[in-house]
Write a sequence for this structure.
């Protein structure tokens, strides 16, 4: 069968795998964002701490996906657990780096003015600094999500959920009937999902970042 016929025949299965794929990516990206922002908040005032956090999260990205999953499988087994841990670890760098940059870029005069009107240090952080750093944090989360869309396909190696199952099945059956259609369907599905999520992030940025900050 041709590619269109393959899509029609496997539509229900592909739809379920696409939903599992995007669900895993979104949840792991949100978890990475929470952890990454927490790390950034903890270290942004310290040049040494910022450098250490950035170097450590950068080092994680140098580990090949297959190697990291191979290290996690003996400890966590197959399936969702190693997938989640791997995706969260890979998603940390953009969030940590952008949180540090965003918080570090807040004007000292703004901080001093906030303290001058009686805000506590926690109040300055939550009501002033994080709000001003939000565009950078959102960008870091957006980049992390796009990265994880592709990396999540490798999770099929650990029997993780998503469209990577189709890609791996098609590649391992190369030369047989519909093998190419299967691999292409999985790949195109990931590309489409990535574009949709990127559009959603663009809308979030439009409605959560004030015009004054966007215009800077």
């Amino acid at each position: 069968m041709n590619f269109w016929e393959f899509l029609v025949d496997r539509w229900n299965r592909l739809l379920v795998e696409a939903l599992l794929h995007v669900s895993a990516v979104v949840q792991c990206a949100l978890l990475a964002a929470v952890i990454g922002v927490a790390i950034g908040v903890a270290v942004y005032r310290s040049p040494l701490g910022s450098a250490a956090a950035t170097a450590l999260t950068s080092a994680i990205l140098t580990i090949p996906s297959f190697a990291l999953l191979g290290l996690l499988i003996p400890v966590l087994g197959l399936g969702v657990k190693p997938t989640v841990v791997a995706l969260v670890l890979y998603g940390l760098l953009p969030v940590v780096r952008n949180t540090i940059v965003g918080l570090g870029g807040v004007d000292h005069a703004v901080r001093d003015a906030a303290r001058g009107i009686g805000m506590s240090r926690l109040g300055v952080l939550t009501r002033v600094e994080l709000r001003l750093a939000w565009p950078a944090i959102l960008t870091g989360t957006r980049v992390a999500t796009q990265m994880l869309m592709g990396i999540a396909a490798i999770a099929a190696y650990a029997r993780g959920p998503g469209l990577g199952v189709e890609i791996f099945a098609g590649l391992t059956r190369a030369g047989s009937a519909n093998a190419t259609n299967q691999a292409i369907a999985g790949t195109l599905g990931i590309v489409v999902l990535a574009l949709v999520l990127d559009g959603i992030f663009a809308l979030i940025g439009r409605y959560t970042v004030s015009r004054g900050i966007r215009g800077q």
